Automatic annotation (TrEMBL):
Top-level taxon of origin: Eukaryota
Name the UniProt record assigns to this protein: non-specific serine/threonine protein kinase
Topological relation to the membrane, as annotated: Single-pass type I membrane protein
MF (Gene Ontology): ATP binding; protein serine/threonine kinase activity
Stretches with biased composition (Low complexity): 818-831
Entry's family note: Belongs to the protein kinase superfamily. Ser/Thr protein kinase family.
Domain Protein kinase intervals: 536-809
CDD domains: STKc_IRAK (cd14066)
Catalytic class of the enzyme: transferase
Known EC number: 2.7.11.1
Signal sequence interval, chain numbering: 1-21
Region Disordered, residue ranges: 817-856
PROSITE patterns for the chain: PROTEIN_KINASE_ATP (PS00107), PROTEIN_KINASE_DOM (PS50011), PROTEIN_KINASE_ST (PS00108)
Length: 856
């Protein structure tokens, strides 16, 4: 009788466990649909109970799925419309899975409980569905860095709880929608703090109705669009603003006087527009730290230096305008004001009563043309020294982490599981955690955490409670059952952890440092690489150099990859290799070759890159690839390479100096879009090295910055010089140094601005025209020669180069933001032969060489 009772209680207990964990059938079917259309799903996605079996990235409440958090998992496929069946879903984070493509299903509007939709850095295309306005609980909407096109849906205005709206870095077009009594608009988003719309193709006037005194907006980022018309006066009503970016548009007219009421704004960028009228007086904006209003047509006489009295201002840029008359700095300049850039104006008089540390730039003003004045300090500071964009996040070196003993939290008895660690990262990265005043927004990068809790702990405790309720004998039996279950689950968790952890074989005891922190890259085993390359067969060898060899490989998914294998004599130390893969894994841009993974075992160091099918630009220019490049195509290649390099300098974290920009390292994809490749010589720039870093000279002769060679001081302007040489190579198809002649000097000597094509017919590539006019040719040459100025400060930044090439393309009748509609086959003379990587490609290590001997 007693054994029957024990057996009955045991059955009831097991049923309690099963029922408590069982995922409802509808949610299970929806997840299986996603698993069916996605590749590279986590290995733990097995079994028929996602909630009970703890599928990685899946969060549940009772039997319902409430979150999908699979950032940087290398997922491939599309977002199935069946996701709408997850009726209790609150959070979706699929960021940095760039192979997630296709359109966003309109059925996503059925997820009425969704509060966080975060799809940063994926490959989604098409329209943003209007049904997104049905997500009434949405707080965070981050769709930036995709390929969405078409207008901003007016229905977003219905999202009354929205805090964060980020649509930047897409291909959105049309005007900003505002309400009209029938349809909603963004003016209804009075609780939203972030409008991030930069780097799109939005056009028309910025509607005055968009702004009101009820708004709580703190970041208004509208840069790099096509907005026209005046800056609306209603903008002055939004007194919560901290950052205002309207730069790189086509705005016109005067700046509204009530902009002065935005007393909390810290960064104001209005540069590269068509703004006119008097220089605005922003005296009351005492929180300003950075102001850039360059490249407009402001006009005023007898400048009143109100900017010198602002308490927080460090940088003031008003270059390339029409300021005229007298400038009297007087003694009112604050010590924190480090730069006043008024170059290229019409200033005829200048008075400075005290010699301060403030750098004043008056180059290209009439005062600097007076005899004797040209030697004044303010007339000698060269052009292009100050970048016109800024970061408004805390530099990483300003944050010192607090270390905990034994790589644990303060309580040594509490361990986190993977889900908890993921949730901590989500809370920080999506800004649900409110930072103290004067901090944030910020980015969360979690360290590896090795002490994951046993997933069966909760079950174990439940067994104790139930066992205690039915008596000692049942308790013993249940504890035994729970122990067996816990042991089984622990072994299963360990196997899953080993499968999911790409660093399980990383040996921290061999001077290779701690486990790397990667974003979107994975670890491959040596056996996997052997299989993908057919045991490193000669047939798959596509390049070789001082570092080692490059092999073509095929992943099980069918994706082609380029595998760079170091030969043993040239391998880096473990720490250096870890640093390189950490750096490259953070680089995600359509004009930069992507690192997919690495192999670090059995004495091997290998990097796995995306395969770029049409080889290097050098091969196309030399005729080796048999791809014909006309003028339009060369402009697009120049723009793509410039955008990739600008990303490395200004948006990568930390910023990266490539150090080896050349035609061999610009690769062309199937549509001949340019991608910057080979980071073997790249140098990350930490905050302490923002001006320059002294380093051993490395690079390729002919592209090397002469000032870097002479001083050994490296800055991003060294890359700008190399890019200028690359532009001349695009024009001439000549190597930088050929038969002792240096292409830069040759162009300088031959260029005659009074003649057609600057008198450069003799050295131009004969195939560049292909029967069409070379529209914008002269401006392209001028830009190239600006890049190769002898003095670094005289050179432009890469963002300035990007903007000028875009202008040249528009002059030539091209849309700089449109993808090429033609594949490489449209430009091939005959079918391609050979492999896409030359023997020099992806490798170059030149150091300690003498300066080149050039013929005059």
């Amino acid at each position: 009788m007693g054994s029957r009772i024990v057996f009955c209680w045991l059955v009831i207990y097991i049923q309690i466990l099963v029922i408590a964990a069982q995922t409802n059938n509808t949610d299970f079917a929806a997840l299986m649909s996603l698993k069916h259309v996605w590749k590279n799903t986590p290995p733990s996605w097995i079994g028929s109970d996602p909630c009970g079996d703890s599928w990685e990235g899946i969060g549940c409440n009772n039997s319902s799925v409430t979150s999908i958090m699979l950032s940087s998992m290398s997922l491939t496929g599309e977002l199935s419309g069946d996701i709408s069946s997850l009726s209790e879903l609150q959070t979706v984070d699929l960021s940095y899975n760039k192979e997630l493509t296709g359109s966003l299903p309109s059925s996503i509007g059925k997820l009425t409980k969704l509060s966080n939709l975060i799809l940063v850095g994926c490959g989604f295309t098409g329209l943003i569905p209007d049904t997104i306005g049905s997500l009434q609980q949405l707080v965070f909407l981050s769709l930036n860095s995709n390929n969405f096109s078409g207008p901003i849906p007016p229905s977003i205005g219905n999202l009354s709880k929205l805090l964060w709206l980020d649509l930047a870095d897409n291909q959105l077009s049309g005007t900003i929608p505002v309400s009209n009594g029938i349809t909603p608009g963004l003016d209804m988003l009075v609780n939203t703090k972030h409008f991030h719309f930069g780097i799109n193709q939005l056009s028309g006037e910025i509607p005055s109705q968009l702004f009101s005194s009820n708004m709580t907006l703190i970041h208004m980022i509208f840069d790099n669009n096509k907005f026209t018309g005046n800056i609306p006066t209603t903008l002055g009503l939004v007194q919560t603003l901290l950052v205002l970016r309207l730069d790189r548009n086509s705005l016109s007219g005067p700046i509204p006087t009530n902009l002065n009421k935005l007393t909390r704004v810290q960064q104001l960028l209005l540069s590269n527009n068509r703004l006119t009228g008097p220089m605005p007086n922003l005296t009351d904006m005492n929180s300003l730290t950075y102001v850039d209003m360059s490249n407009n047509t402001f006009d005023v006489s007898n400048i009143q230096p109100w900017f010198s009295s602002l308490l927080s201002l460090t940088t003031f840029i008003l270059s390339h305008n029409r300021l005229n008359g007298a400038l009297d700095i007087g003694s009112r300049v604050r010590n924190q004001l480090k730069l006043i850039n008024l170059q290229n104006n019409l200033i005829s008089e200048f008075t400075q009563k005290e010699d301060r540390d403030t750098e004043i730039i008056l180059v290209q003003n009439p005062i600097c043309e007076e005899v004797g004045r040209e030697r004044e300090k303010y007339c000698m500071v060269p052009q292009g020294k100050q970048q016109s964009n800024s970061a408004y996040s805390t530099p990483p070196n300003n944050c010192v982490p607090a270390h905990c003993s034994s790589n644990k939290l303060s309580s040594p008895n509490y361990h986190f599981n993977r889900t908890e660690i993921s949730r901590i990262g989500f809370v920080l990265s999506n800004q649900t955690f409110k930072a103290p005043k004067d901090f944030g927004p910020f980015t969360f990068i979690g360290d590896a955490y090795e002490y994951f809790a046993d997933v069966s702990t909760g079950t174990h405790k439940s067994g104790i409670i139930i066992g205690a309720a039915i008596g000692g004998s049942v308790l013993v039996l249940l504890l035994l059952l729970a122990g067996v279950y816990a042991f089984h689950q622990k072994k299963r968790a360990e196997r899953a952890t080993k499968q999911n952890n790409p660093f399980a074989s990383w040996d921290s005891n061999t001077n290779s440092g701690g486990i790397p922190q990667l974003k979107g890259a994975r670890s491959f085993s040596f056996q996997e690489i052997k299989k993908y390359t057919n045991n490193f067969s000669e047939a798959n060898e596509i390049g070789t150099g001082g570092y080692g060899k490059v092999y073509r490989g095929t992943l099980p998914t069918g994706q082609l990859v380029a595998i760079k294998r170091a030969q043993h004599g040239s391998m880096q130390g473990g720490v250096e290799f870890k640093t390189e893969i950490e750096l490259l894994s953070r680089v995600h841009h359509k004009n930069v070759v992507s690192l997919l993974g690495f192999c670090f075992e059995q004495g091997e160091q290998m990097l796995v890159y995306e395969y770029v099918p049409n080889g290097s630009l050098k091969e196309s220019l030399s005729g080796k690839s048999r791809i014909r490049l006309d003028w339009m195509r060369r402009l697009r290649i120049a723009l793509g390479a410039a955008r990739g390099l600008s990303y490395l300098h200004e948006l990568a974290n930390p910023p990266i100096i490539h150090r080896d920009i050349k035609s061999n390292n610009i690769l062309l994809d199937e549509r001949l879009n340019a991608k910057v490749g080979d980071f073997g010589l790249s140098k990350p720039m930490v905050d302490a090295e923002k001006d320059h870093v002294t380093t051993q000279i490395k690079g390729t002769m002919g592209y090397l910055d002469p000032e870097y060679y002479m001083t050994q001081q490296l800055t991003e302007k060294s890359d700008v010089y190399s890019f200028g040489v690359l532009m001349l190579e695009l024009l001439t198809a000549k190597r930088p140094i050929e038969k002792g002649k240096y292409i830069v000097r040759e162009v300088k000597q031959m260029r005659d601005k009074t003649k057609d094509l600057y008198n450069l017919h003799e050295i131009l590539d004969p195939t560049i025209g292909l029967g069409m006019p070379l529209k914008g040719f002269e401006r392209f040459v001028d830009l190239a020669m600006w890049c190769v100025e002898d003095s670094r400060p005289d050179r432009p930044t890469m963002s300035e180069v990007v903007k000028e090439i875009e202008n040249i393309m528009q002059l030539a009748g091209l849309n700089p933001n449109a993808e090429s509609a033609s594949t490489s086959a449209s430009y091939e003379e005959t079918s391609m032969g050979g492999h896409p990587y030359s023997n020099e490609n992806l490798f170059s290590y030149s150091e300690g060489f003498p300066p080149p001997k050039l013929e005059p």
